[in-house]
Amino acid sequence: MKYFTPIFSVLLFVSLALLPMTTSAETQNYRLGAGDTIVIKVYGEEALTLETQITNSGTINYPFLGSLKLIGLSIKEVEQIVYNGLKGAYFIEPNVFVGMVLYRPFYIHGEVKQPGGYPYQPGMTVNQAVALAGGLTERASQDKIAISREGSKVESEHGTINSAIQAGDTITIEQRFF
């Protein structure tokens, strides 16, 4: 019993240390879109800290650099754009950080108890989206799920309760026939 606490502490520390790594990897591959809120920081320069929402045109206004088109870019790509823009003309070696504050929402409608838009989190599934929407109605079909991807030319794709969703997706749960 006297070894339980140190072992538990080590396991807790390791699991907490690995948690940000998985979330960070998902965030690094994420592509920005209209409605996402990001934060940009330059170490040692409080005046260059900006928390902003990406506009419908896919842009933000950043001090010294003006309008930046960020739609479709990753967090790392935005860091590089800000770094390149500030380096030389304004700073010798700027230390730039860009992070996600709030993802754009996903939408769910059809046979759910509370249809609407909900905040997206990386790794979400249709099942988790349904839970946020209060669950399925009595007439909902778990076989007739359509997912419309934001910006996709395809009208919608067939989904299952375990399908992964993305920010900006629209999920439709159809009625089942008795």
Outline the structure in words.
The structure is a single chain. The chain is an alpha+beta fold and 178 residues long. The protein has 2 domains: 66 residues, 2-Layer Sandwich (wza like fold); 70 residues, Outer membrane lipoprotein wza domain like (Outer membrane lipoprotein wza fold like), CATH 3.10.560. Helices cover 25% and strands 31% of the residues. The protein has 3 helices and 10 strands. The strands form 3 sheets. The protein has a 5-stranded mixed beta sheet with strand order 7-6-10-8-9, covered by helices on one side. A 3-stranded antiparallel beta sheet has the order 2-1-5, with helices on one face. The longest helix has 26 residues. The N terminus is likely disordered.
CATH class of the largest domain: Alpha Beta
Average pLDDT over all residues: 85
Proportion of helical residues: 25-40%
Strand content: 25-35%
Run of helices and strands: HEEEEHEEEHEEE
CATH superfamily membership of the largest domain: Outer membrane lipoprotein wza domain like
How far is the N terminus from the C terminus? 57 Å
Write down the domain tally.
2
CATH architecture group name of the largest domain = Roll
CATH topology of the largest domain: the name is: Outer membrane lipoprotein wza fold like
Task: List low-confidence stretches.
Answer: 3-23
